[in-house]
């Protein structure tokens, strides 16, 4: 086996890969070399850290309602004093708020929940 990184499904793999590359401080690879238009890699510091695979008709999780259950989610971390700025950056990149009720001013350790452009929930954590 050779690949050892998570993969997320999306209908629009370019938007999804661009989003995660911006969030993780990386770049999208193989956008021009994928003849079938089915896959993108997100590369950070020369290593693939996330795959994005085309999934036509994708039905995304409905967290916190479990009518379409959550399969997997990613956590990204920020320093406590960077949480609010990181939240604004995620929204500017295309994330959507799902539960942002926790505040680093009130909690030493915590998280806020967002959805990426394809609708996958992920957490911005601190502490």
Descriptive key words:
127 residues, 2,3-Dihydroxybiphenyl 1,2-Dioxygenase, domain 1, 2 helices, 8 strands, 32% strand
Instruction: Please identify the top-level CATH class of the largest domain.
Output: Alpha Beta
Our count of helices gives 2
Number of domains: 2
CATH architecture of the largest domain: Roll
Major sheet details: 4 strands, mixed
Helix-residue proportion: 10-25%
Number of separate strands:
8
String of helices and strands: EHEEEEHEEE
| Computed CA radius of gyration, to the nearest angstrom | 15 Å
- Give the terminus-to-terminus CA distance: 34 Å
Overall pLDDT score? 91
Question: What portion of the residues fall into strands of 2 or more residues?
Answer: 25-35%
**Model regions low in confidence, pLDDT < 50 over at least 5 residues:** none
Biggest β-sheet: strands ordered side by side in the sheet? 1-4-3-2
Structural class: alpha/beta
The CATH H-level homologous superfamily of the largest domain: 2,3-Dihydroxybiphenyl 1,2-Dioxygenase, domain 1
User: What is the fold named in CATH at topology level of the largest domain?
Assistant: 2,3-Dihydroxybiphenyl 1,2-Dioxygenase, domain 1
Shape: globular
Protein name: VOC domain-containing protein
Domain VOC: 2-127
């Amino acid at each position: 086996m050779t690949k050892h990184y998570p993969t997320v499904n999306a209908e629009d793999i370019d938007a999804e890969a661009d989003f995660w590359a911006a969030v993780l401080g990386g770049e999208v690879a193989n956008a021009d070399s994928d003849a079938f238009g089915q896959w993108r890699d997100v590369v950070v510091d020369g290593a693939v850290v996330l795959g994005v695979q085309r999934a036509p008709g994708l039905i995304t999780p409905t967290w916190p309602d479990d009518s379409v259950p959550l399969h997997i989610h990613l956590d990204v971390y920020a320093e406590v004093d960077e949480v609010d700025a990181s939240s604004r950056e995620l929204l500017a990149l295309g994330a959507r708020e799902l539960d942002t009720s926790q505040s680093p001013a009130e909690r030493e350790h915590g998280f806020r929940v967002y959805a990426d452009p394809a609708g996958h929930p992920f957490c911005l954590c601190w502490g």
